[in-house]
C-alpha cells in the first residue's frame, strides 16, 4: 500500500483524478487544496484512508507542515504528485512584474519546496515516486503564455536533473505533459480581466483569452483517462522518463521535436565548426 501526496486538489481537476485512482488501487491519499472545505464531502466518503490538508504551495512553512502531517498519519510519502499550478496570460513585454513573479512562485518554486519536503523521507526508505505535472507548454512555448511556458520549461529542466540525482536512492521521476484537458483550469479566464500593459499586444492577448474561454468544457482530454495512462507508465518496466497526454498534445510535441531535429541537422556543419581545429586540441592518450 502506497501513500500519495497530491497538491492542487480542486474538484474536477487532475489532483482529484489522481486521488480517486490511487484509492481505487487500495492506497492512502493526502490531498491538499487552498480551500479544503470543498473536499469535505469527498473526504467523508473515504474515512481514514484520506487526509485533506490546507495548503498554499507558495508558503514553504505550510508545505513542510503538510508533509509532516502526512508522515505522522501514514508513516511516509511514497508518491508525490506536483499538480498545483495555473496559467497567467500576457505578452513577454507587457505582463506586469508581479504576475511574472507570481507565476514562477506557483509554477516553479513551489515544486522545489515540495521536493525538498518529501525527498529526505524517500531517500531514507530507499524508494519513492515523483510525478511532476508539467505541460505541453514546457516543451513548446505558447504565444501569450510566455512566462507560463518559461516556468514549465524550468520545471522540465529541473526534472531532468532530479531524475539522475535521486536514481541511486531508488526514487523514480516522471514528467507529465498534458495538452488541453477538461478540467476547471480554463474557467477562470472568463472572470479574469486582461492585464496587459503594452497596447500593441492587446489584440493578441484578447484573442488568447477568448480562445481559452471558448474551449472551456470542450477540451478533448479526459483527466481520468490521463491519470490511468500515467499509472500504466509507472507500472511499466522500465518506466518512461516522460509522457505526453492527449492527442493534441502528442501532435504538438511531435511537430516541435521534428522541427528541432531538422534545424539541428541543417546546422550541423556550423555547429561542429565552432570547436578548435583537431590539431590544436592537444595530444590524445
Structural overview:
α5 (about 145-165) links the parallel β5 and β6 (about 170-180). The radius of gyration is 21 Å and the shape is globular. α4 packs parallel to α5. It has 9 helices and 7 strands, in the order βαβαβαβαβαβααβαα. It is an alpha/beta fold and about 280 residues long. The protein has a 7-stranded parallel sheet, sandwiched between helices. It has helices at about 15-25, 40-45, 60-75, 95-125, 145-165, 200-215, 225-235, 245-265, 270, and strands at about 5, 30-35, 50-55, 80, 130-135, 170-180, 240-245. The protein starts with a strand and ends in a 13-residue tail after the last helix.
Write the layout of secondary structure elements.
Blueprint (H helix, E strand, L loop, with lengths): L2 E4 L7 H11 L3 E6 L6 H5 L5 E5 L5 H15 L4 E4 L14 H29 L2 E6 L12 H21 L4 E8 L23 H14 L7 H13 L6 E4 L1 H20 L1 H5 L13
Parallel strand pairs: 1-2, 1-4, 2-3, 4-5, 5-6, 6-7
Helix pairs in contact: 1-7, 3-4, 4-5
Give a short summary of the structure.
It contains 9 helices and 7 strands; from the N terminus they run βαβαβαβαβαβααβαα. With 285 residues, it is α/β, with parallel strands linked by helices. α1 crosses α7 and α4 packs parallel to α5.
Amino acid at each position: 500500500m502506497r501513500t500519495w501526496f497530491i497538491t492542487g486538489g480542486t474538484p474536477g481537476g487532475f489532483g482529484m483524478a489522481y486521488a480517486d485512482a490511487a484509492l481505487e488501487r487500495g492506497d492512502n491519499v493526502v490531498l491538499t487544496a487552498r480551500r479544503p472545505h470543498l473536499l469535505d464531502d469527498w473526504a467523508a466518503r473515504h474515512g481514514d484512508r484520506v487526509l485533506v490538508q490546507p495548503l498554499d504551495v507558495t508558503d514553504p512553512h505550510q508545505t513542510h507542515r503538510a508533509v509532516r502531517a502526512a508522515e505522522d498519519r501514514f508513516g511516509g510519502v511514497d508518491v508525490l504528485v506536483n499538480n498545483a499550478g495555473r496559467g497567467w496570460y500576457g505578452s513577454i513585454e507587457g505582463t506586469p512584474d508581479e504576475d511574472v513573479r507570481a507565476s514562477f512562485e506557483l509554477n516553479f518554486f513551489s515544486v522545489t519546496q515540495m521536493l525538498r519536503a518529501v525527498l529526505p523521507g524517500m531517500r531514507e526508505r530507499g524508494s519513492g515516486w515523483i510525478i511532476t505535472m508539467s505541460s505541453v507548454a514546457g516543451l513548446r512555448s505558447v504565444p501569450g503564455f510566455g512566462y507560463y511556458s518559461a516556468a514549465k520549461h524550468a520545471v522540465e529542466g529541473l526534472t531532468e536533473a532530479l531524475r539522475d540525482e535521486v536514481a541511486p536512492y531508488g526514487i523514480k521521476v516522471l514528467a507529465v505533459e498534458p495538452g488541453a484537458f477538461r478540467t476547471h483550469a480554463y474557467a477562470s479566464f472568463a472572470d479574469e480581466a486582461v492585464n496587459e500593459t503594452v497596447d500593441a499586444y492587446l489584440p493578441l492577448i484578447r484573442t488568447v483569452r477568448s480562445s481559452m474561454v471558448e474551449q472551456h468544457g470542450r477540451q478533448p482530454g479526459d483527466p481520468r483517462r490521463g491519470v490511468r495512462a500515467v499509472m500504466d507508465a509507472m507500472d511499466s518496466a522500465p518506466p518512461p522518463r516522460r509522457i505526453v497526454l492527449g492527442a493534441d498534445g502528442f501532435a504538438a510535441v511531435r511537430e516541435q521535436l521534428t522541427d528541432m531535429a531538422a534545424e539541428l541537422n541543417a546546422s550541423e556543419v556550423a555547429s561542429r565548426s565552432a570547436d578548435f581545429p583537431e590539431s590544436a586540441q592537444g595530444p590524445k592518450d
